[in-house]
Amino acid sequence: MIKKTFVNLLFSFITITFIISCSSTKISSESLNYIISGNKFAEKGDFQSSANQYRLALKEEPNSTTAKRNLGLVSVKIGKYKEAIELLKDVSSFYTKDAELFYFLGEANRAIGNDNDAIKSYQQSLNISPAELRVQKSLSWVYLKLGEYDQAEKLIKRNFEKNPLDLQLLLISTSIDIKKERYTKAIKAMQEFEKSDFRIVSKDQTTAETEKILLLNVLGNAYAGVNNCEKAQKIYEIVLKYRPFLASTLTDSAKCDIKANNTLLAKNKLEKAHASEPNYPEALYLLGKIYTNNDPKKAAFYYKRFVEISSDYKNLEAENKQAQASLNLLESKKFIQGKKSD
């Protein structure tokens, strides 16, 4: 899913401030040595070794809030989000002015889909440090995901105007444009990216590739929005060369196939998207529509799953109502047919 990819992109830019001692309890010299060692590993980017050192510190001093706090931060970096949440929540009352702790707590919650908890943590972080751009970016992305487009735009608009070359801000801003159907505006904002033949300059090749994929997907959606599916499909093809199973791009490409009445090709892409990302909402909804006439049982399955997971998404309210209506109709037909067979 494109949002997960974006989460990973943000994590790749995160810098962490590690503390040595703000603990509520006395720290033994051995525990302190492990914390210092963990900090050194973290500064070098070796977060797994860093985490191991903090765990050793906790063996020596189980109540060390410093070790728990630092371990919570690096746990986000190594993808142990649930552990991070447990650790950071446990010590948050000792670090009420620690904007970084609440930011990372927000990142961990966002990574596992706890969007409301993520919002609360980001807001706590911004209450402490209102100008922190990375927190604003992350919070804006959650609002975007939940369909709160005005809130998302309010957070990043001024910063994007000041920093139009910031790729993360460009991505968020143009994604908002797509959701608000400002397709021409999004295309214009990405002109330089398109003119450069989609070139991204970055010291890290993996980061550059991820940025390119995300921006290409948004640009493809912008062209699809102005009914230029031919150009959109060419862009989607580039994305799928890098990420053949990216559910969002497969689904967006399938939408263009549906417009061209190429239902079979669309179905194959949507099935592939569903296999890759079983809970990707749009793929579920479109599969329900495609199967309605020739396989009502499958259609009902996809609609039911879509209704279950889309209820919290403001941007999917119309589709949710349509899916529920279609599901009710399919179930009533099944009931009527069952009566006839009796």
What would the keywords be for this entry?
single chain, 342 residues, mainly alpha, Serine Threonine Protein Phosphatase 5, Tetratricopeptide repeat, 3 domains, 19 helices, 75% helix, globular, disordered N terminus, disordered C terminus
Structure description:
This protein has 342 residues and is mainly α. The protein contains 19 helices and no strands. The protein folds into three domains: 132 residues, Serine Threonine Protein Phosphatase 5, Tetratricopeptide repeat (Alpha Horseshoe); 97 residues, no CATH class; 73 residues. Helix 3 runs antiparallel to helix 4 and helix 11 packs antiparallel against helix 13. The chain is globular and about 70 Å long. The two termini are 45 Å apart.
Largest sheet entry = none
Tally of domains = 3
What's the β-strand tally? 0
SSE order, one letter for each helix or strand: HHHHHHHHHHHHHHHHHHH
Keywords: Coiled coil, TPR repeat
GO molecular function: kinesin binding
TPR repeats: 99-132, 133-166
Pfam families: TPR_16, TPR_6, TPR_8
